[in-house]
Amino acid sequence: MAQKDAQDQDGTETSRTASHGDETLFTKDVERQSDDGGEPDETSEKTAPEDPNIVNWGKTDPENPMNWPSSKKIGVLAVVAFVTMLSPLASTMSASATPLIMSNFGSTNQTLGPFVTSVYILGYAFGPLAWAPLSELYGRLPIYNICNILFLIFSIACSVAPNLGALIAFRFFAGIAASCPITISSGTVADLYPVEKRGKAMASMILGPLFGPAIGPVVGGYLSEAKGWRWTFWLITILAGAACIISFIFNRETYPYVLLQRKTASLQKETGNSELRSALDTGRTPRQLFKASIVRPLRMLYLSPIVFLMSLVMAAVYGYLYLLLTTYPRVFGTQYNFSEKSIALVYLGVGVGSLLGLVFTGAISDRLLNHLAKRYNNGTPKPEYRLPTMLVGSILVPVGLFLYGWSAEERVHWIVPVIGTAILGGAMMIIFMPGLTYLIDAYTVYAASVSAAATVFRSLIGALLPLAGNAMYDALGVGWGNSLLGFIAVACIPVPLLFWIYGERLRNSRRLSKVQF
Question: What do the Gene Ontology cellular component annotations say (predicted)?
């Protein structure tokens, strides 16, 4: 009787065989990864009798985020995309105001100047280790809201910082809070969309991390010159306050684990059957789950060659972005005698390139995935079908670096190095979108954790590489300095090709299938 009542409730099935979200796609990969990283026996699953006390989603259950109306999905996605764009926008808004900040606090330290910007990114390296497991334990929504409030508080603190040390400290904690949407937004996309529709949705999430840093210095440059450098942080504070309000009103919980737990609790109360339990329940306590989850991103980096190498490629590109953004004042100020306002406009090169890369990748990502699935795998998509697009971006990165470096070194017309940065910006988008989507498709169960792993890696590189920018240009010059980065980028070109050929074999290998993430 309890089973029948449960089945009648909004399409929910108390059946172990009901499908959950996109688990019907990439079935082998997802079913192999239980919440504790174990490896279920697929044969025994097929022959075992159904447990009538297991509560799972029905195919048309309206409470399953996969079944939400498009308008509701787009609404949630828009809120998360806004918060996700605000985070990296704040990372560089003070970059063009760095000379004013250093002058105001009486510092001439050439390392501390870029560190005001990069310490924020350093916070990105620590925050995901907490936000990803917490979101997989308590849900996405409360973590979004808590981090929005923390970001607002530390943005206010930056606005009134009494000295350089306090500003750097507040920026670090603001970065920790701001890493939340960067980390778990990909999990939100995985909650809402099946794999064949995920590429376009991911575009809205990745636009912020790559387009925001290019727009921030333009806004910050003009605002700091007109109103003073503190107003760059007051503007961030105003936007953070708006993000808090919008998220509290319009954002919704999307994490299936939490939603199914709520559904189970409701059915237990309605049916009086205390034996009902969620199909996603691992049977472990919250403390046990958190202890396992908090180290999962680092374990994935250490134990999975796919996660490590893909994160390495994205980290290198991310580091290049922040190195360029923090050294534009030097390059264009020294080589072209640009004023601070003119330097602020140079940042638009990366922004325009990123936008073009977004349009290109968004237009072909899902289309190419479906085409390759029909051609090579009877219509069933594989994560590796994302990688041909990424290969295009990997080739364009060194092209952009060589063009930027040597045209600036030889003082060719300023538009040429700006075109080089635009090529680099487009290449970064073409790498990031399919790269991160590939990881999410390959590790759907751990979408937030694999995103955290990639975020931690790239944030460390993004925070530390800019600190070496001035010293590198002092030693090698702009031409050979960027050529060095270009040669490293050339070495990364084979990575997408490597996983196109061997990725599925690696994911299905006996050694990796037994790894407990």
Answer: membrane
Looking at the fold, whether 379 and 418 belong to one and the same domain comes out as yes
From residue 228, how far is each of 98, 220, 336, 470 by CA, in Å? Answer: 11, 10, 25, 25
Residue with tokens 């999430």: 205
- The helix-helix angle for 447-464 and 305-336 (nearest 10°) equals 30
Which single residue is written with the structure tokens 């290198």? Answer: 316
In this structure, the answer to whether residues 286 and 304 fall within a common structural domain is: no
* Phi-psi label, residue 378: left if phi above 0, alpha if psi -120 to 50, beta otherwise: left
Residue 295 CB: number of other CB atoms within 10 A?
14
Asked if residue 202 and residue 138 are part of one domain, the reply reads: yes
Write down the residue that tokens 């498709």 correspond to.
441
Q: Give the pLDDT confidence of 84-114 residue by residue, as tens digits.
A: 889 888 888 887 788 888 888 888 777 777 7
The one-letter amino acid at 410:
E
Count: domains in the chain: 2
Encode pLDDT of 456-506 as tens digits. Answer: 888 888 888 888 887 888 889 999 999 999 999 999 999 999 998 888 888
Judge if 347 and 422 occupy the same domain. Answer: yes
15 inside domain: no
Domain check: are 376 and 362 in the same one?
yes
Q: What is the dihedral of CA 67, 71, 76, 82, to 10 degrees?
A: 150
Question: Residues 242, 245, 248, CA angle at the centre, nearest 5°?
Answer: 145
Unique residue bearing structure tokens 């996700």: 84
Would you say the C-alpha torsion 194, 199, 202, 203 has a positive or negative sign?
Answer: negative
The 10 Å Cβ neighbour count of residue 22 is 21
Q: Classify residue 55 by its DSSP letter.
A: E
Q: Return the HEC string of 300-340.
A: HHHHCHHHHHHHHHHHHHHHHHHHHHHHHHHHHHHHHCCCH
Give the residue among 172, 154, 143 at the shortest CA–CA distance from 237.
154
Taking a C-beta distance cutoff of 8 angstroms, is the pair 439, 450 a contact?
yes
Question: What is the CATH classification number for the domain harbouring 223?
Answer: 1.20.1250.20
Rounded-to-integer distance, Cα 456 and Cα 451, Å: 9
**Is there a single domain that holds both residue 378 and residue 355?**
yes
Of the candidates 224, 228, 205, which has an alpha carbon nearest to the alpha carbon of residue 216?
224
Provide the phi-psi class of 283: left if phi over 0, else alpha when psi is between -120 and 50, else beta: left
Same domain, 303 and 328: yes
